[in-house]
Amino acid sequence: SIIEQVAARLPEDGALIEFVRFTPYNFQPGEGRRAWETPRYLALVLLPARNIEVADLGAGESIEQLAAQLLRGVSNPRNAYQQAAFELHLRLIAPLAEYLKGRRSPFISADGIVNLVPLAALHDGEHFLLDTFDALTYLSSGRDLLPRQPATALGPVAVFAD
């Protein structure tokens, strides 16, 4: 399976963290409740042993507000971003602490506005996330860890240039 292939590519002290934004659907909405609920974020942590840990990170709106606040803060050196960096750390990274214990090389794939956030700038009150690990590697997807198949030409190639 793809999960086993990706897990096999992780270093022994690594982990793949996928932040996923999703909108739950309630199949029995009932009186006064909507079928489509408010967006939420999940964290999926894949470890080299091929086990996947899941953490519900909560309502998407509050995470997205903190992310936007942090992005505004780091884009202008006169802005204060430390509080947003701390609060976003509490929402995104702290719930994963037990899964990341002893991990030195996480790979991160993020969804939604979290994909734009410089996660290395998150702060736990003592250390930046970048200082906590030996390396942070950003991916567009966990599949980025798999070797790419070389492109093969379908036929002869013609190049026209001026």
Order of helices and strands: HEEEHHHEHE
Q: What composes the largest sheet?
A: 5 strands, mixed
Helix content: 25-40%
Number-wise, the strands total 5
Strand content: 15-25%
Strand order of the largest sheet: 3-2-1-4-5
Radius of gyration: 19 Å
Overall form: globular
Beginning-to-end CA distance, first to last residue: 47 Å
Low-confidence stretches: none
Total count of helical runs of at least 4 residues: 5
Q: Mean pLDDT score, rounded?
A: 89
Structural class given helices, strands, pairing?
A: alpha/beta
Please provide a written account of the structure:
The protein is an alpha/beta fold. Helix content is 27%, strand content 20%. The chain has five helices and five strands, in the order H-E-E-E-H-H-H-E-H-E. The protein has helices at residues 2-9, 60-75, 82-92, 97-100, 129-132, and strands at 14-22, 40-46, 52-59, 105-110, 137-139. It has a five-stranded mixed beta sheet with strand order 3-2-1-4-5. Helix 2 (60-75) packs antiparallel against helix 3 (82-92). It is globular, with a radius of gyration of 19 Å.
In short:
With 162 residues, the protein is α/β, with parallel strands linked by helices. The chain has helices spanning 2-9, 60-75, 82-92, 97-100, 129-132, and strands at 14-22, 40-46, 52-59, 105-110, 137-139.
